[in-house]
Structures are given as structure tokens and as C-alpha cells.
Design brief:
The chain is an all-alpha fold. It has one domain. The protein is elongated, with a radius of gyration of 20 Å.
């Protein structure tokens, strides 16, 4: 595991300490790693949506209604 030194603002440090104090996490490192995992997962979803939007824009106009479009999008993952 790589060790890293970071600087935190007072409010962010207080919040991290509170999470550890409340036993939500066993350490600040565990919490920061979890926050990074969540951010990476969210970025993957944003990238997926962006890809779908780009494909849709390239395909042109449609006569399908909103429900049909959403249904097809869910089937195609």
C-alpha cells in the first residue's frame, strides 16, 4: 500500500475525525479510500452516460417517446 501525505482544511479534518469517532470507519485512511472508491464509481457512471449521450447525438432524431427511449436504453445497458 502506498503512503501519502495530504493537507486538509479544518472542517474536512473535523468531519473525518467525527466519522472515525462515531465508529463509521476505523481510520481516516479507510474513510478516504472509501470516498475515493465512491468517486471512481460515480465517474464510471458519468462516463457511461456521456458515452450514451454521444451515441444518441450521432444517431440523429427519433420519433420514439420518452418511455420507449428509456426502455431501450435500459435493455442496451
Amino acid at each position: 500500500m502506498t503512503r501519502q501525505s495530504i493537507s486538509l482544511t479544518g472542517p474536512n479534518n473535523d468531519w473525518l475525525n467525527e466519522q472515525v469517532k462515531n465508529q463509521e470507519y476505523s481510520s481516516k485512511s479507510e474513510l478516504v479510500n472509501d470516498l475515493i472508491r465512491q468517486a471512481r464509481s460515480q465517474q464510471a457512471r458519468v462516463d457511461w452516460i456521456r458515452c450514451k449521450i454521444e451515441k444518441a447525438e450521432e444517431s440523429g432524431f427519433t420519433s420514439h417517446n420518452r418511455e420507449e427511449i428509456l426502455s431501450k436504453a435500459m435493455l442496451n445497458g
